[in-house]
Amino acid sequence: MKVVAVDGNLQVTHQSNVQFDNDLPEFRTQGGVHIHEDRLTVTSPVHMWVKALDLILKKMKNAGFDFSHVKAVSGSGQQHGSVYWKKGARLTLQHLDPRRDLYSLLQDSFAVQDSPVWMDSSTTEQCQCLESTVGGAQQLADITGSRAYERFTGNQIAKIHQFQSDKYKETERISLVSSFAASLFLGDYAAIDYSDGSGMNLMNIFSKQWSQPCLKATAPQLAEKLGDPVPSTAILGSVSSYFVKRFGFPEDCKVVAFTGDNPGSLAGMRLQEGDIAVSLGTSDTVFLWIKEPRPTVEGHIFCNPVDCLSYMALICYKNGSLTRERIRNECAGGSWEGFSRALRSVPMGNNGNIGIYFDAMEITPPAVGIYRFDQHNTQVASFTQEVEIRALVEGQFLAKRVHAQKLGYKISKCSLSFYLNLVFSLMFLGFFLILLSFLYSIRSFYLFTVSVYLCIYLSF
């Protein structure tokens, strides 16, 4: 969990964090999660998140942070994760005793103690059922922006209803991690925002309402447990009196809808219409701002967190930095400087040679293997080291462009040369600074923050 305080000029005035494994060892997590025996089910203790908020606010107070100057609170949480509030929890939230910490006050407030998170992949059966019910993977993507994914919240809800029906019946409200965190500050159930709600396989991204066919295929009485979604910029109300009395927040401090970490990244990087951002990490991630989305079974379309009339697309590629590092080691003696020299030694376009490098099963598209083609479109067994390096770089970025265009991104003719020159001149500066991606590697360390990623920013 991380907190950042910024002033009116977006200058950081305070920041702090809690690492679940180190700071809260009593929950015995690894990377902030519990991986179950089947290696498919992955959860986080919801009480750990509550205790982390207690701890981070205590750290801020001990550091002398003046809460009376806080004008508004918002944030982002790991996308897809879900929290199941027990019947009666709303009343508890509305009457929190400022003399006690949240952890003790909310001990009996959750029907499900271990929340499913984005790393979970145990809901294949529920995914297949959802797609079958609505008419197939493409039809589901046309409605919700994505085909059925195991980590998506709707499929997690369906599993809980199917295998823990008593706990589902005990549930009064289902929150995403983002709206759960907002609920704590609001002292009431916070609405799910459009953008984070797009990652559930439940919301019609065009009407911005829950899809009745998807709800029906998932679980009974689901609409009332979810509440109505709201714009990502909505002001939900003022901060709970609990935080006013316990920490000194002003009574008029506003709680703005929290969103998911992926939408938060687009907002935090201040992307605008026509912009694209590429995060180079263990997994590569492409963020797009688009006006006319074309959902496909590859990639995701979410409602835009900044502009309700626009959309954002997200494409994730599994074969990122590890593949680049392998080619660097094999063709440049483990040196990024040597890698860059070899790249520059071959002309742009690689004399017609191109390579596809999927060391592990890729996400977009689902394929594995190494494929090389020469200028005659003939498959070959190998390239020279210099050609191999450029084939890797050009192949990866051409794939990103192709899939972005499939989702509705448009590149004008005048921007193409700029795009290529910017990519290849800046890409390797990023390699020296690559961090593990916050999204798909260690994202569970953070509950709410407007995330900032080391990335190559491409503006057309």
> What shape does the CA trace take?
globular
Structural class category: alpha+beta
- Total helical segments: 18
Q: What percent of residues are in strands?
A: 15-25%
Radius of gyration: 23 Å
- Low-confidence parts, pLDDT < 50 over ≥5 residues? 414-460
- How far the N terminus sits from the C terminus, by CA atoms, comes to 34 Å
Query: Mean of the pLDDT scores?
Result: 89
How much helical structure, as a percent, in the residues?
Answer: 25-40%
Assembly type: single chain
Sheet with the most strands, sense and barrel status: 5 strands, antiparallel
Report the strand count: 22
Strand order of the largest sheet: 17-18-16-15-22
Write the layout of secondary structure elements.
Elements: E1 2-6, E2 12-17, H1 20-23, E3 34-35, E4 42-45, H2 46-62, E5 72-73, E6 76-77, E7 82-86, H3 89-94, H4 102-105, E8 114-116, H5 124-134, H6 137-144, H7 153-163, H8 165-170, E9 171-176, H9 177-186, H10 194-197, E10 203-204, E11 209-210, H11 212-218, H12 222-226, E12 235-238, H13 241-247, E13 254-256, E14 259-260, H14 261-268, E15 275-279, E16 284-290, E17 300-303, E18 311-317, H15 321-331, H16 336-344, E19 354-358, E20 369-373, E21 379-380, H17 385-406, H18 413-431, E22 456-459
Parallel strand pairs: 5-13, 6-14
Antiparallel strand pairs: 1-2, 3-4, 4-8, 7-9, 10-11, 12-13, 15-16, 15-22, 16-18, 17-18, 19-20, 20-21
Describe the structure.
It contains 18 helices and 22 strands. Helix 5 packs across helix 6, helix 5 (about 125-135) crosses helix 7 (about 155-165) and helix 5 runs antiparallel to helix 11 (about 210-220). With about 450 residues, it is of the alpha+beta class. It has helices at about 20-25, 45-60, 90-95, 100-105, 125-135, 135-145, 155-165, 165-170, 175-185, 195, 210-220, 220-225, 240-245, 260-270, 320-330, 335-345, 385-405, 415-430, and strands at about 1-5, 10-15, 35, 40-45, 70-75, 75, 80-85, 115, 170-175, 205, 210, 235-240, 255, 260, 275-280, 285-290, 300-305, 310-315, 355-360, 370-375, 380, 455-460.
